[in-house]
Amino acid sequence: MYDLLMLPQCKGNNHWVLLVASVMSRTVTIYDSLGGNNKALFDLFCQFMCQRAQIVKDGLEKFSSEFKAPPCNKQRHGNSCGVFALMVIN
């Protein structure tokens, strides 16, 4: 039905990152233009997917126990994180 789940997430009410979950490989990648620690976001995503699996039976509750945080373009201004999160979608 779909290959990727792309979820823009707002951290701390002031910073946007992009979580990308690959349905095929069951991996999660988090793109953060500040390069912050996103383990809590990854854990929250995994918890959500497990809870979702109780309602929607499509086998998407199992993802890798680790996430990738590849290098991405770094923002130079304090208010451009949303643009950087959207640029990754391209």
UniProtKB/TrEMBL annotation:
Q: Which family does it belong to?
A: Belongs to the peptidase C48 family.
Native source species: Dreissena polymorpha (Zebra mussel)
An example Pfam family from this entry, by short name, is Peptidase_C48
Q: Name one GO molecular function term.
A: cysteine-type peptidase activity
The Ubiquitin-like protease family profile domain covers 1-90
Q: Please give the Gene3D superfamilies that the UniProt record associates with this protein.
A: Adenoviral Proteinase, Chain A (3.40.395.10)
TM regions (residue ranges): none
Entry keyword set? Hydrolase, Protease
Q: Which SUPFAM superfamilies match?
A: Cysteine proteinases
Annotated GO biological process: proteolysis
Q: Does the record's keyword annotation contain Hydrolase?
A: yes
For this entry, the protein name equals: Ubiquitin-like protease family profile domain-containing protein
